Amino acid sequence: MSGGSGNRTVWWWISLAAMVVMVVFLLYPLLTILTGSFGGGERNGWAQLLADPRYLEAVRNTLVLATAVTGLSVCLGVPLAYLASRYEFPGKSALALLPLIALVIPEVIAAQTWLMLVGNNGVVTRALRSVDIVLPSFYGWPGLIVSLTFTYYAYVYISTLAAIRGFDVQLEEAARSLGTSPARSRLKVLVPVIMPSVMAGALLVFTMVMGNFGTSSILGGKVRLLSVMTYQAAVAEGGADPVMQSTLASVAVGLIVIVLFLQRWVLSRGRYQVVQGRNARPVPLSGRQGWLIGGAAGAVVIVSLMPLAMLVAGAFTVSRGPVMRWGEWTLANFERLLLTNPTPILNTLAYSAVATLIGIAASTLVSYMIVKKKNLFTPALDYLSTLPLALSGTAIGIGLAMSFNSGWLHLTGTGAIVVLAYVIRRLPFSMRSASSTLYNIPDSIEEASISLGVAPVPSFFKVVLPLMVPAIASAMVLTWAVTVSELSASIIVYSGGRETMPIQIYKLIDSNLMAQASAMGVLLLAVILLPIFVATKLFRVELFSSR
Amino acid sequence: MGIDIQKLGVAYGDHLVIDGLSLRIEPGSFFTLLGPSGCGKTTLLRTIAGFIDAAAGRILFGDKDVTGLPAHRRDIGMVFQDYALFPDKTVNDNVAYGLRARGQDGATIRRKVGEALERVGLGHLGGRHPAALSGGQRQRVALARALVIQPTVLLMDEPLSNLDAKLRVQVRDTITELQREAGITTVFVTHDQEEALAMSDRIGVMKSGRLEQVGTPSEIYRDSVSSYVADFVGAANTVEIDAPGAAPGMVTVRLGGHALSARVPAPLAGSRAVLIARPEDIALSPQGTGGANSVQGTVSRRQYLGGKTHYLIGIGQDVALAVETHGDGHDRYMPGADVELSFDPAKTLVLAS
Fold first, then answer.
1. Which residues of A touch B (CB under 8 A)?
2. Distances from the Cα of B228 to the Cαs of A227, A333, B188, in angstroms?
3. What number is the average pLDDT over the span A335-343?
4. What angle do CA B279, B285, B290 make, to 5 degrees?
5. A10-51+331-547: CATH number
6. What is the CATH number of domain B3-222?
7. pTM
8. ipTM of the complex
9. 3-state secondary structure (DSSP) of residue B50
């Protein structure tokens, strides 16, 4: 045996280390949640769950909500994507904004601005009340469904758009040449081909709604939802219930796992490879048809953008406690946030910066090993790194809080646990982006470097890493944008003095201080948008490969 | 420096893909590993390079045992099928890469890079990125990059297979020229027999992890040791015949009811054997004029190719032979015509089946 190549040992040790880290920070918290549900002596969590109708109602409500929002998202997202890819009409460029909206508006802000519009004290509600029209309460089902649909439908839009753009129109033309009418050809040929992408987008929405905490908690009203009850079991003042929190978190994990398996099954049944693509030329629509379609698409975009306008207006409006004095402008809201308590802003910047750096470095390294340096551990690393997909933010928060509350690694009360939550939530996504880039870099590039006399590890840094830089840059910007608006995990693990901007916004909304919440929201958007702007305009980073 | 491979074994998991392979490659020679995909030729090349660990045996460059040495310390030059140029670096920086790794000073590097690119005819393209080059130019850059470090051995993994037919011949000539000039021991992997015959000093034909035959191009072509080699190196008619236990030398066999003299290069074991005759080694003549050592047949297909004609000729019921004719009137036989096929006993082989 030669076994002389020293590189093997280096990578072997690194993958062993990665394995240990993942087991400690990912697998162990998950197991803690699962085993925690069997605690509680005589009546373990599962017995309590089945005995109390409130819990079952919460599970049912969550599934109903997820189904409704997913259905509506498909109804909005698919037609919009079709219009955007196949037609030209007035105002089409506004549709290009949609992916950005999905990305940048944190859902807490979306929920808050809906309240400011049509909540009990909302602008529209009050205007209508003055002419004796009483709107039904926005809290509960109407608010949940409307707000969540407009928060998440863009995911369906994005994945459908990519599929339609990748579709070869020659297939449609072939169907037509064989004697089917244009409309039927489209239905018979296009629909089956884009179906997997639509389903993928829809199931993503489904899992996101199930895991959603911010909007559910702010707008839920009397509707019991799993994520909110889990949160309450975890942090209720004086009434925290460790057994129930892990039981409910386990239920959430189980539900998402089922959905993910469903998704796998659907995708494995219907994956078509469109070999050579010729894209459809967008057909210009003009006249009344153009305006009609443009108007409909525009309305969706406007509703999607409304939160932004409302937010900016609210941020500069004079308020006294919960009362907004619309029409009177001020900078006081910002002054208060920046001068009296800038801690949440500084925390967010620090935690997200650290989490982005750690997350990207770790996922680059680990996906490099998974793709290029396969060994005993890499299949396990591959599986472990997708684990967070099955965990809602709330579940991750509970897992971390339970696991590192005491003992040899005491993280509760530190900023590190927030950073950890960010890194874990984002891991599968940054891993996916890194590994798809790596698959596109042929092994021979690295071997060429080695053959020219550069050792394996320096070869990685000299020839592989530079090729990954564009992907790394875009992953960093996305990770930053997502982590600065993270709420559901951090709100469980944070402690006094460690508030982040979304947590602060949540608290301000809870105290009905909408003006200050808006100001914080504007600052949060600035924190999200500035790097995106710098990256895309100055460094020409491509954020959406689907475009 | 020559390459000496002694009883080499290579395993993927528990599966031995190369078992007990020995081979000597003379210093400064151009050696080709030839075989179909999956025969182990690329595995052998990558083991020589150090990208795959040997499970058994030794590899020596000259007197130096490199078996345990990692690839980057073997002092090899390698040319890849997909060029493997660093896409973010200019042509100059690609070629300079190995020199920089060897810590040479800037002036020397500039001079050597310039010379190397000049030699492959790309002196004017040093500032470009690989994406701005054609396939043939890219492979020339890859060649310059591998040669500029003056490696102990040059290893090439199907470097021509991504190029179109015309470029393939051009780059082939560049490679042969530069290799002769530099006198670097070279191992070249290909599945293209024409490439192998045209470029090599010696060829090793591989089959399932073993070397089936090693020899000069004409030995491989003229004195194939098996029907596998004969068939792989150039087109050959192979006909199963009866030839019970013949010793090396001339034998008489029967083909389509006619007696034929043929040559047996190596002892035959079983009772069945294979008659091998290359299409261009069979002469055609009108019926009744064939002379000694000929058989009768009927033209069943005729393909006119300009300077030559391909025929398919049926002999009896079961045998059809491909024949290629050159010279005056090479296209004169029409389908259905009865002809006589004459065989040169020295070029007609009987091999173990």
1. 1-7, 442, 444-445, 447-456, 459, 463, 466-467
2. 69, 86, 20
3. 88
4. 100
5. 1.10.3720.10
6. 3.40.50.300
7. 0.79
8. 0.85
9. coil
